[in-house]
Amino acid sequence: GAGVSQSPRYKVTKRGQDVALRCDPISGHVSLYWYRQALGQGPEFLTYFNYEAQQDKSGLPNDRFSAERPEGSISTLTIQRTEQRDSAMYRCASSSSLAGANTGELFFGEGSRLTVL
Amino acid sequence: QKEVEQDPGPLSVPEGAIVSLNCTYSNSAFQYFMWYRQYSRKGPELLMYTYSSGNKEDGRFTAQVDKSSKYISLFIRDSQPSDSATYLCAMSGASGSARQLTFGSGTQLTVLP
């Protein structure tokens, strides 16, 4: 596709359920980033991949959060045993270069809004 | 204290005004500085990018970085209603695990026709 595609756009789930959020980056982009954005705040880094390798997961809040990008393209962010504090907009971004964030060449998707009841 | 501080606004100006948006930061390792624009219900999009200290101009937009003061600015000249959006500053370090961006909280700007 022309841009970064995320699904679902909206997800409402009950506390304790697992959720999986999908990101389809721009074709050919080698780096993929996950961010979380609370209302009225800037995006907060979670993790990123170069190709299929997870390079940095220091931003993942706890071990309920995990991400994978098995074939170096589509990525899934999984949240297990969701809690109300996990409610936020989850944004995916991709970059054509490994330098990615340093040059600001991140292209963001429209996000997946997660609401945990 | 957050690594990047940004006045959230909201900021409301008349069409044609000069707008000044600012961020301060505490991490001296930051070397790459960006401004993103985020329209309502959309993802952020890159507006300006600068490396280290100095000025950069692109049309009506000018980005300034003063590393000695740990202060960055975005100026918008002849502001237009279409400039109404949230403006996020972002920055990152040079290498290794510092490749991820650290964002400010964003300043909401409204340009009134």
Number-wise, the strands of chain B total 11
Question: Strand-and-helix sequence of chain B, N→C?
Answer: EEEEEEEEEEE
- Helix proportion of chain B: under 10%
Rg calculated over all Cα atoms of chain A: 13 Å
Keywords summarizing the entry:
heterodimer; A: 117 residues; mainly beta; seven-stranded mixed β-sheet; four-stranded antiparallel β-sheet; 11 strands; B: 113 residues; five-stranded antiparallel β-sheet
What does this structure look like?
The complex is a heterodimer of chains A (117) and B (113). Chain A is mainly β and 117 residues long. Chain A is built from no helices and 11 strands. In chain A, the strands form 2 sheets. In chain A, strands 2, 4, 5, 6, 9, 10 and 11 form a 7-stranded mixed sheet that branches. In chain A, strands 1-3-8-7 form a 4-stranded antiparallel sheet, with no helix packed on it. Chain B has no helices and 11 strands. Chain B has strands spanning 4-6, 11-14, 19-25, 32-38, 45-51, 54-58, 61-66, 71-76, 85-92, 102-103, 107-112. Chain A binds chain B through residues 4, 33, 40-45, 48, 55-56, 58-59, 91, 93, 99-111, and chain B through 4, 6, 8, 31-32, 34, 36, 41-46, 49, 88, 90, 92-94, 97, 99-106.
Question: How would you summarize what this structure contains?
Answer:
The complex is a heterodimer of chains A (117) and B (113). With 117 residues, chain A is mainly beta. Helices cover 0% and strands 47% of the residues of chain A.
